[in-house]
Every structure is written in structure tokens, then in C-alpha cells.
Design brief:
With about 400 residues, the chain is an alpha/beta fold. It has 16 helices and 13 strands. The strands form 2 sheets. A 7-stranded parallel sheet has the order 3-2-1-4-5-6-7, with helices on both faces. A 6-stranded parallel sheet has the order 10-9-8-11-12-13, with helices on both faces. Helix 3 packs parallel to helix 4 and helix 8 packs parallel to helix 10. The longest helix has 22 residues.
Length: about 400
């Protein structure tokens, strides 16, 4: 029988954002590799049935959560995990109850654990709900992370691990990956005929303060006020879902009423998502904190150049000329947007080609999937050597 890998992720779809997408793609790569049997353990949410269809044909077990939604306490998940006979556990994301489940399972069965923090050890994240996160760390998470193997998405993330007081000796850098999309797309639902004469700037993903949406809106106002032709020749499109930013829709409504060149299209999935990427001239993410943003990789796969901050941890985009660097302040974002707006078509096409080539060379399923499967193979082999007698029954 193939070795079983328990994969614990808080959500499998839209509610989990880029973490869920990365978990899905890695599971897909593991299935294609063929050496392991992935078993997914997650929380039930209102979109579970719809999101399940996008995953490969692997067992997925979802459980009800109780209490605060941002912790996901689930007795059903815990007892299910503790009954699983597997060779390794892989945890996506931290700070939630599924980490506790993995920690107890790994300790009880003396089996190896792999944790992908997805940038959640970054300082900006650790300062949010700092007291609650300190309690989680003290009770079980720090001890678990200190003995687990860590899969980090970028070399910059190793510093975040160190700054959080976690040993870095078992860190392995493997980036996320994306598929090369199909080439034929229609126009997205948010498209209007007048957009054909405008350069489209797309913000796609979770709309949260750390993503820099508010600074982007300040920059957009500045450009509309100071650039005579900006209002008629530039269009800002937000696609995504709101996360704890109650003033977002009011801010956009005011800008739209005043300038008429900004739109909020809501969440986009499947074919709608593809159409939105394909319609964009530039992708914009002025983020303050990221692990490795899936949205940028997806934009590059569609040949969309990006405007991004150093916090996106994708400096390779600058060196390959697939991205323009911007800062986190509104005036810096405005300056970079103005540069993009006046960019000659030849240079923009060069950036588009660079983006597509970058995905093929560095962020393909073959490159990333084989590295991930090899890492799991080494952990399973080491776990088989190091483990003592495993209890035959838990209950």
C-alpha cells in the first residue's frame, strides 16, 4: 500500500484564499507523482460542496467547528485525526486548532510532521491578535513547530521563522506553483464597453488591510486629481472577498461616483477568475505582508505584468522584468501606476513574455511537485527509521 499523508488545512476553498489554493495544487502534484495517498482533513463551511469539485479525487473529510471562526475548534476533527494510521502529517497554515490536532497525532504516534506556515510567522501577522497568538504558541504551537520540519515558500520566510524563535535547521524552500491557463477567454461580467479604451489595473484576492487596498485607493484618487487623462484612460478593478474592512465598499462607492473609473466585481472563481485575469493589463498588489502570493503567480501565468511590493517575496519578478516594484505608501503606489500607464507597448509586451516564461521555468507543477514529493519521501523514510513501536489501537 502507498504511504498515507494526512494533510490538514483549515479550509479547502474560497474561504481559505491562497492557502487553500496552494494546498489543493500540492495535493494535485502529490497525486500526479503517485508515490503517496493524500488524505485531506478540513473544516466544513457553506461553500464546501462547491469547492470540493476543484480538488483531485482524494479522500476529503470535513468537520464542524465551534466557537470563534478564526480558531476552528473541532472535536470531530481531533478524534478523526487521532484514529488515522499514516506515515506523515502535513499542516497548511498555523494559529488554528488543526495545528493542535497534528501536534498531538505526531507526538502520540511518533511520526514526522511537515508544516507550511504560508507566511503566517511574519512579524505583521504575529502582531495581529498578539495575546491570543502568544497563548497558542505557549500552549502547544511553538513546541510543535520546533520539532517539525518546515516547508517555507521563500528564503525570506526563513528569517520570519527565526524571528519567531523557531529553529531554522529543518526549513526547506519550495515555492507555490500554478498551471499554465488556456488561451481563449471571453470578457468578464464586470466588463463595460468603455473599458476597451482604458488600461485595466486588477487587484485580485482577499481584501484585507494588509493587502494595501486603502493605500491603493488613496493613490487612485491622487492620480485622478492630478493627471488630466487618468479618469478616461485608466480603470481599477477589485475582484475578491472582504475580510475585516468595513469601509471598503463605501470608499469605492465614493470614488466611483466622483471619477467613474473604479469597480468592485466581488469574488471570482473558475472561468470568471480566468476571464478577469485575461482582461487585465497590470496586476496590482501593494501588500504589507505575504508568504508567497498565489494571485501574483496566477497573474504571471496569464502573462499579466505585476505592480508589487517587496513584501510579496517575489524579487525574481523584478530581476526577470515581469514586475514593477512599488512601495507601501500611497504616493509610491501612485508613482508606479503612472509609470505603468505611460509604458510603451513594446516594453509591456516584453514584461508579458517574461511573466509567462518565469512561470514555466520556476513555478510549474513538474518543478515544484517533484521537490515536494521528494521532501515527503525523505520524511517518511526518516520516520520509519526513528519511530518506536506504534500503539495498535488508540481507543
Amino acid at each position: 500500500m502507498k504511504p498515507r499523508i494526512l494533510i490538514l488545512t483549515p479550509f479547502i476553498g474560497r474561504r481559505g484564499g491562497g492557502v487553500s489554493e496552494a494546498a489543493r495544487l500540492l495535493t494535485e502534484a502529490l497525486t500526479a507523482d503517485g508515490r503517496f495517498l493524500p488524505v485531506i482533513v478540513t473544516l466544513q463551511d457553506s461553500d464546501f460542496d462547491a469547492d470540493r469539485a476543484a480538488w483531485p479525487n482524494v479522500p476529503i473529510h470535513a468537520f464542524r467547528a465551534y466557537g470563534p471562526a478564526n480558531y476552528g475548534f473541532s472535536p470531530g476533527m481531533f478524534w478523526f485525526v487521532m484514529r488515522q494510521r499514516a506515515q506523515c502529517v502535513h499542516v497548511h497554515g498555523i494559529w488554528m486548532f488543526h495545528v493542535f490536532c497534528a501536534a498531538v497525532w505526531s507526538s502520540f504516534y511518533r511520526r514526522p510532521a511537515l508544516v507550511t506556515p504560508h507566511g503566517m510567522l511574519e512579524y505583521w501577522i504575529r502582531q495581529r491578535s498578539a495575546r491570543l497568538k502568544a497563548a497558542v504558541s505557549l500552549l502547544y504551537q511553538r513546541r510543535f513547530l520546533s520539532r517539525a520540519s518546515l516547508h517555507v515558500l521563500t528564503s525570506n520566510e526563513i528569517k520570519d521563522v527565526s524571528d519567531a524563535g523557531i529553529p531554522t535547521g529543518r526549513c526547506t524552500v519550495i515555492p507555490n506553483y500554478v498551471h499554465t491557463p488556456k488561451i481563449n477567454f471571453g470578457k468578464p461580467d464586470w466588463w463595460q464597453p468603455e473599458f476597451a479604451d482604458r488600461r485595466i489595473y486588477l487587484f485580485f484576492g482577499r481584501i484585507h488591510d494588509k493587502k494595501g487596498w486603502e493605500e491603493l485607493c488613496y493613490a487612485w484618487r491622487q492620480l485622478n486629481d492630478t493627471q488630466p487623462r487618468w479618469q478616461a484612460e485608466a480603470q481599477l478593478v477589485f475582484c475578491g472577498w472582504l475580510d475585516d474592512c468595513s469601509n471598503f465598499e463605501r470608499t469605492l462607492r465614493v470614488l466611483q461616483e466622483e471619477f467613474g473609473n473604479i469597480v468592485f466585481a466581488g469574488s471570482q472563481f473558475g472561468g470568471d477568475r480566468d476571464k478577469s485575469y485575461a482582461a487585465a493589463d497590470f496586476f496590482v498588489l501593494p501588500s504589507k505582508s505575504e508568504g508567497l502570493p498565489m494571485s501574483i503567480l496566477e497573474a504571471w501565468a496569464f502573462g499579466v505584468p505585476t505592480i508589487m511590493t517587496r513584501a510579496c517575496n517575489l524579487d525574481i519578478g523584478y530581476s526577470s522584468e515581469a514586475a514593477l516594484e512599488t512601495g507601501e505608501e500611497a504616493y509610491q503606489i501612485a508613482r508606479t501606476l503612472a509609470e505603468a500607464q505611460t509604458m510603451p507597448g513594446r516594453r509591456r509586451q516584453k514584461m508579458r513574455n517574461a511573466a509567462i516564461n518565469l512561470v514555466k521555468e520556476s513555478f510549474s507543477q513538474n518543478a515544484v511537485g517533484s521537490s515536494y514529493a521528494n521532501l515527503l519521501a525523505s520524511l517518511v523514510e526518516k520516520g520509519a527509521r526513528d519511530s518506536d513501536v506504534v500503539p495498535s489501537e488508540l481507543l
